[in-house]
Specification:
- The chain is of the alpha+beta class and about 475 residues long.
- The chain folds into 2 domains: about 260 residues, no CATH class; about 130 residues, Immunoglobulin-like (Sandwich).
- Helices cover about 40% and strands about 20% of the residues.
- It is built from 15 helices and 18 strands.
- Strands 10, 11, 12, 14 and 16 form a 5-stranded antiparallel sheet that branches.
- Strand 1 and strand 2 form a beta hairpin.
- Helix 4 packs across helix 7 and helix 5 packs across helix 7.
- The longest helix is centred in the first third of the chain and has 26 residues.
- The protein starts with a strand and ends with a helix.
């Protein structure tokens, strides 16, 4: 914050603060896909490997029940942000705005000088000059390179960098990925260079729903007509000179300099009131702050609410019931996600009993062997091959009486593949003596992976409920 000759303190322009935020967000977006914890990414939705990585935890596609909750958080977050701060998402977070600032303010204005001043966004470069045509071509080339990087960066959240660059080495085998990058880059070039802010004004649906979300305490860029005066008459005729404004309203402070108009990227006049095209970039606030600061006065355009500026009822209430409700719902959803994530299983196992209930076989010692067959469908969702085995947990009083007939040793499952395994459980004990019907015995199957030392892994383990069917008495007699 600086102080001018009149003693008015001039705060750091919102534009500079936005630049800092853009830089931070850009660095995070570029670096985040490279960060791994135990081979897992912060966010990765891999259609290639059918995996979801979230907060460095890996989920299989069968565990995609988390995605609806993530989408709810995203939409509720944007809606809550809009209720509190208007289209602050558009001006401060939206990639469309970030890319336009990089192209228009950095490449065209600062680097190439194609535009004369950042503060004048209304005046387009004179493209009749050959020099400007060359600069425009250079600007498009520079942005095309950045668009390709942005396209690749976007794909890194679907194809991790460690796979992405190996795919580039064999482009003919990965034309879908290459096509996506080229398509994204082509769209960004058209959007940023040619469509410009018309995307925000005519294409983006967000501006059409924002008015439904606004209330009198929603914070946005507002012109204060009580101080500045109404610069439009009742028929929307613009007063272009200060003397005309003064003639209509002698107390009016607006100088009719139109700095707030020329700096607006969506080409609106903030003095005309709330408009759908406003993206809350607050450049008009900066412009008016500078002009009025030189006169020793506070800005006529501020980031405030109708309640405080237009209606003058009092101070803006930020944490009102509607905002608290959004925050509460988001917090509840995050708790649900955390609870679901904490119960995540690190191996997937489905157990299906075969249609034949059991088989019997007489043994030489006079006893009868009863077998139950099952089909195990196991999937290794780790990043390396693992060995798996399981234990049978029988009801109290039957411990150790139901045993594993096959497989008789741990078996290996490669990552990402489902392995079908036929499992046979057997017993030679008389587990029930029912003459009328077969006995269904509830059992638990504790499946686990083996670590490098051959010990049971406490983390990669699951418990499943199943049954063991023991035949009725006459079946046992016939088997003997």
């Amino acid at each position: 914050m600086s102080e001018n000759s009149t003693g008015i303190k001039i705060p750091t322009p919102w534009r500079i603060k936005r630049y800092y935020l853009y830089a931070v967000v850009t660095v995070i977006a570029l670096i985040l896909p490279w960060i791994q914890v135990d081979g897992n990414h912060f966010f990765l939705l891999s259609f290639d490997k059918l995996k979801l990585h979230l907060a460095f935890v890996q989920f299989d596609m069968q565990e995609m029940y988390l995605m609806p909750f993530l989408l709810m958080i995203m939409f509720l977050g944007i809606f809550g942000m809009t209720v509190m701060g208007g289209r602050v998402f558009c001006g401060w977070v939206c990639p469309q705005t970030v890319f336009r600032v990089i192209y228009r303010d950095l490449i065209e204005t600062k680097i190439l000088g194609l535009r004369k001043r950042i503060k004048n966004k209304q005046q387009e470069p004179d493209m009749t000059k050959s020099e400007n045509k060359v600069k425009k071509a250079i600007a498009i080339v520079l942005w095309t390179v950045l668009a390709l990087i942005a396209g690749a960066n976007f794909m890194w959240f679907f194809v991790p960098p460690e796979d992405f660059f190996s795919y580039l080495a064999n482009p003919a085998d990965h034309m879908v990925t290459i096509g996506f990058i080229l398509g994204i880059a082509a769209f960004l070039v058209y959007d940023v260079v040619f469509l410009k802010e018309n995307f925000c004004v005519y294409v983006c649906p967000y501006s059409r729903i924002q008015s439904v979300l606004y209330d009198e305490h929603t914070v946005m860029a507002l012109y204060n007509p009580h101080r500045g005066g109404n610069i439009y008459d009742g028929h929307d005729k613009l007063y272009t000179k200060q003397k005309d404004i003064k003639a209509a309203e002698p107390h009016a402070e607006c100088t009719a300099c139109e700095s707030c108009v020329t700096v607006c990227p969506t080409h609106i006049d903030i003095r005309q009131g709330l408009q759908l095209e406003c993206i809350n970039c607050l450049e008009c606030v900066d412009a008016c702050t500078t002009v009025m600061g030189k006169l020793g006065k506070e800005s006529l355009v501020t980031w405030s609410s109708d309640y405080e500026i237009i209606d003058q009822k009092g101070k803006t209430r930020y944490f009102r019931p509607k905002i608290l409700a959004y925050m509460g719902i988001i917090a509840i959803i995050m708790v649900i996600i955390a609870m679901m994530g904490s119960k995540k299983e690190h191996m997937l196992l489905n157990i299906n009993k075969e249609t034949r209930l059991y088989s019997t076989k007489a043994l030489d010692n006079g006893s009868v062997q009863v077998d139950n067959a099952y089909e195990f469908l196991l999937q290794n969702i780790q990043n390396e091959s693992m060995k798996y085995y399981f234990d049978i947990i029988a009801p109290k009083g039957m411990e150790g009486k139901i045993k594993i007939d096959k497989p008789n040793a741990p078996f290996t499952v490669t990552p990402g593949y489902k392995k079908k395994k036929i499992v046979v459980l057997t017993t030679t004990e008389v587990l029930a003596d029912d003459a009328r019907k077969d006995t269904v015995i509830p059992i638990k199957i504790y499946a686990y992976a083996l670590d490098k030392d051959g010990k049971k892994s406490e983390k990669i383990a699951v418990m499943r409920d199943s049954i063991f069917v023991f035949p009725k008495a006459n079946i046992l007699k016939e088997a003997k």
